Amino acid sequence: MIFTKTLTRWYSENKRALPWRKTKNPYYIWLSEIILQQTQVKQGLPYYDAFVAKYPTVFDLAKAPESDVLKLWQGLGYYSRARNLHASAKHIVYKLNGTFPNNYKALLKLKGVGDYTASAVASICFNEVAAVVDGNVYRVLSRYFGIDTPINSSKGTKAFKALAQELIDKKNPADFNQAIMEFGAVQCRPKSPNCAVCPLKNGCVAFNKNTIAELPVKIKSAKAKKKHYNFLVFISKDQKTLLEKRKGKGIWQNLYQFPLIETNNAQSLNALKKLLKTYEILKDTDFELVPYNKDAIIHKLSHQHLHTKFWIVYVNTLNANGVSFDKVHDFPVPALIGSFIEDFNF
């Protein structure tokens, strides 16, 4: 098909020089694909280099403490990716004797690996005819073929996967998959696609009908919830603070943060002081409370917006859990907390 041949030819002439394109090692391909989920290449590349340097094999990653993996991941967000990456590395090493799964169905059994990642690794490393479908692929296919089925509907997911599977180069699935992803990333961009020099424009329905800005179609997600976070930054006279590990299955699982009080609305200084008088560690203790940021920092996550204030709590001493200022940087923390730590200059 002209579409397939044109795309792979374009890729051979225009592909970016990226480190994971120099190897067929499934560990490196898998690592790159997990990092690039929800992350652009420009942001993900330094993390890929850091992981390869620190954990050059799946055995090295499997042996690492989870806290070290999360620390190296810090700033990328969507931390479940890092936890799943680590869990899958341990599964490969300790359950599969270090043998990486070598086909689509086996790859799907790894924690954190879905259709897209399994297809990418299977095709690139093992030449399996398994078409990838990610945001870039949705955009290219919906525009070229003029498909207005929502990409985040079950009907759309099945339809685009079937179309991609029909179009894939059966003799060279690795290059085709990388070509269509690369084309969506650098040529058929979400905004201001470079249509003037697009090799597919003559057959592109969206280009010829002037509907590029309307495709792909996506069902709007529910409105993000608004939450109010009050972080308590304890400062003792002997230069210690407190950090706590987040539990449960919510955001930032197993990362560290300053003690948190979540409220239904923004708190004034006096209102928070009253709350703190019932706070276990401050019962019958003298303390001074100072707001660090006057206006709330709005930290936007996919399903919630955190209206955040940091409050400095000056105390004489802290209990045995106190963390010395020079150790604060050793803990894996969310980007929001990491930015505060850098700004506060512990």
Automatic annotation (TrEMBL):
Spell out the CDD domains in the cross-references: ENDO3c, NUDIX_DNA_Glycosylase_C-MutY
One GO term in the molecular function aspect is: purine-specific mismatch base pair DNA N-glycosylase activity
State the free-text cofactor note: Binds 1 [4Fe-4S] cluster.
Q: Does the keyword Zinc apply?
A: no
Q: What EC number(s) are associated with this protein in UniProt?
A: 3.2.2.31
Reaction(s) catalysed (UniProt annotation): Hydrolyzes free adenine bases from 7,8-dihydro-8-oxoguanine:adenine mismatched double-stranded DNA, leaving an apurinic site
Which part of the chain is the HhH-GPD domain? Answer: 35-186
The prosthetic group or cofactor this protein requires is: [4Fe-4S] cluster
**A Pfam cross-reference name:** NUDIX_4
Q: Does the keyword Transcription apply?
A: no
Which major enzyme category is it? hydrolase
Q: Which UniProt keywords apply?
A: 4Fe-4S, DNA damage, DNA repair, Glycosidase, Hydrolase, Iron, Iron-sulfur, Metal-binding
Per the record, the coiled-coil ranges are: none
Q: Which InterPro entries match?
A: A/G_AdeGlyc_MutY, DNA_glycosylase, HhH-GPD_domain, HhH_base_excis_C, MIG/MutY, MutY_C, NUDIX_hydrolase-like_dom_sf
User: Which SUPFAM superfamilies does the record match to this protein?
Assistant: DNA-glycosylase, Nudix
What family is it from? Belongs to the Nth/MutY family.
Biological function: Adenine glycosylase active on G-A mispairs. MutY also corrects error-prone DNA synthesis past GO lesions which are due to the oxidatively damaged form of guanine: 7,8-dihydro-8-oxoguanine (8-oxo-dGTP).
Q: What is this protein called?
A: Adenine DNA glycosylase
Q: Which organism is it from?
A: Gelatiniphilus marinus
**Gene assigned in the entry:** mutY
